[in-house]
């Protein structure tokens, strides 16, 4: 198993160690509960509360499974070995070694993507690993302390206390929200003189922040941020990052302005690790961001099938048959097929019928209907019925098709997906192992039993001030599919709580939340 | 107030903010509970649990007192200003500024002393600041992980897993003990294969470890370490530190051997900060490690008296009258005076008499007799009565005098002393402030009311495995003056618990201890 993140750990927690001899290779000897990471930047939770030593998560008794703290640097699928290298500060005289495998699981995640923007690595901070968050926290503390020194001109104070967030996705938004909570709840107590000199700006390249969520959520978030005084610049791209300012270009007018910052947090998208590129090459796949896998998560192009899997952020489960836009391309034709009474609108009955017809050839339809009983299919229609007339016109129908496409086109790069994939693969591998042990099959790599199916439980985003938004479109939860506000925050606490990988983690996170409630956040520069 | 450590914080917690306009300057924006620091190296307690933001400790309401995160770099006692410089990563365009004062309190502590040994700063780790301990923890995790990689030769594993502790004082001993606890309690679970490849060596320049404690404690500690397999090399000095080994010279034979290490922790004594050197120079004092102060903690040589104080590790409260070795110099003469019946031995009655006679002119005698009723003076004699014959021969008497000298000669550089000095000075300054406010005095710097008196509550050292030692010689506690073993550990928990500066700290430390008890220590490299 390569990696110790969401995907790898879900696998490790479910694999049967009596069937497999498990070795884990990762440069990070702990699991990181990423969804809570933005809170570390201001001390809502402590870094240590979000991590769990991998060794404590290994299956079986101590010594049954092995963990190697190193980076995998290349895979040889023919010889079935992984070349590894210890890239940490302390290394043995020979930092390289190889690990042989029968079955390989690649769960190495994806690094942040700078899109080649100059200056990002030098001057901006990412928000991906635990050290990134600690770094941002230290930097913020340092900025607040420096701005508090005697004789610093107000102009300089304001520049230092400008926080620039590049990327209006959930991570950027959650960081901005955490920061705003800190300003509101703790700054008056800790730095009373700085209160009015702080500004937060979010730069987003799309039309709206949280643009992968339901529009209502985007809007709710934008309104809340506006009330909180968080500036949102949409349709802008950062073209350059210098030590204390970024150049931001308006995508329409092409005009560029300079935005000064004390700290710039970069959170725009995912890139590719060198290892993933090399696996893509070894498998003879076309160059892309992620490793292409089939619906059983088997790496395409590597034989024997079943010897190599990939999952999580480094894997792309888009099936060949359902490449993006397929349904949308045919939307008008499908609309005609659906509109049996030719009244120019698809009513409830017609909609249910066409979904059922399409379901078999277009797996993406399942992401719309998933888990919905016949009665509930009505609800699906109403999701797209913007004018509320009980049926879908051509435009509304197109939106339904587009959404089904977009759902399948790429499973989102989330912990939710990685976690389900890890659990799925453990079940598959356990079944295979048992079948071989019982002598029911003799092939080294028997055929998989059933494909991976993603159950979308909804997308959360915290917005600060005990407000959150939840988008459960396509989820089987008995909930309104778009929920916003304070009640949602309670749900959020619940979900993140149950997300923590161990009881230790759970207890620590709850204690952190309690601590914050009782004593406020800690401003120490550590 | 310069500093945010034990001395400064004790002052801040007790000063009356209605009488003074308090400004605090320190490069560290938090207080650090040093006695628990060795535990951070292995995760017995978390770094954050030992710190408390200074801003939360400032007297009065938010905004009443100021904190500036910067280093004081020079004091001008005539102009009464402190020059400061922000030495952190983020600085304003002009990182220097000055702070005027009426009354200055210097509590800047003392840095580790390398005694000029080459290689220490490059290759060894200190155990002084919180980042040092975090550093050691990361390094240890890295070493254990690297030693666990496939194909590392056993020889190399053993070298990596050698821990070298330079200095057999309480910090070095406590670190060795914490590490041994980690090896015993957590390594079997986390790194079962490495169990027998780990070694700990303590190098001490004196005859015994813990040589400032009672001999029985030294002995108890040495025996416990021997049982635990911790190697103690006494009468040796480290003459050079390289990347993976240190050269150790036997003080007697002058023979040098090389000791390989994976990590070397250096904890041998205290040095002088540049600021302290410059204050010593400005006050016209002879060059020494610490600022010389009188019994009111006023810096000698700075006028007006009462405008500058120093306390804690950076201050030397040795009074001129009692400079070191005074009693020892006269020991033979005093022995003659004491031995009234001229039988060549000082019996109990004679000893009590001479102590009473000397008490007035030699304040150091009080550190022996302190708080002891007449009956208890017998106990004092027995402390030095090595052959147990009920009286002191010439050699035994000398030892008593030497000890009295050494006690006063230098208040030990401990948190206990710094804390009491801070509390004392706050009381003094409050009295002065009140007297001036009531118009009872008009002088800007009225004379101090009473001198500082140190109440020694005993010296603790933890030895691992829930064992501790306590030396309460000279303490007014109703306790056996030397206590060792498991019961003492309970006391230790109690003392350290009450040492935590805030309820937040207390709660966090107790939670850490609980966490460790339930889940073991966390091996994550963070
Ligand atoms: C700040 C933040 C907030 C997020 N919030 C949410 C959220 O609220 N909800 C949600 O569903 N998702 C969220 N995500 C996304 C989620 O974290 C990722 O989708 C998820 O971690 C992907 O899991 P993974 O196992 O593929 O990769 P990761 O969890 O990133 O793990 C990758 C692992 O591979 C290791 N690795 C890297 N290179 C190598 C190598 N060469 N060899 C061996 N190992 C290697 C890494 O050290 C790591 O252990 C968030 C992400 C971030 C950064
Ligand atoms: C690992 C360890 C364990 C210990 N265990 C014990 C124990 O069990 N019992 C005990 O009694 N003692 C113990 N001690 C000793 C104790 O910590 C010190 O004696 C005590 O901290 C001294 O207090 P202080 O206020 O003088 O200095 P410190 O607490 O060291 O504080 C000095 C402060 O001054 C600041 N400073 C430094 N330079 C400047 C500058 N130029 N300008 C402004 N500020 C500056 C520092 O940032 C710091 O805030 C231990 C020490 C260590 C390192």
UniProtKB/TrEMBL annotation, chains A, B:
CDD domains: EFh. It is a peripheral membrane protein. SUPFAM superfamilies: EF-hand, FAD/NAD(P)-binding domain. Keywords: Calcium, FAD, Flavoprotein, Membrane, Mitochondrion, Mitochondrion inner membrane, NAD, Oxidoreductase, Transit peptide. Residues 326-361, 372-407 form the EF-hand domain. Its main location: mitochondrion. GO terms for cellular component: mitochondrial inner membrane. The keyword Mitochondrion applies. The keyword Calcium applies. It is found in: Mitochondrion inner membrane. Its EC number is 1.6.5.9. GO terms for molecular function: calcium ion binding; NADH dehydrogenase (quinone) (non-electrogenic) activity. Pfam families: EF-hand_7, NDH2_C, Pyr_redox_2. It catalyses: a quinone + NADH + H(+) = a quinol + NAD(+); a ubiquinone + NADH + H(+) = a ubiquinol + NAD(+). Belongs to the NADH dehydrogenase family. This is NADH:ubiquinone reductase (non-electrogenic). It comes from Micromonas pusilla (Picoplanktonic green alga).
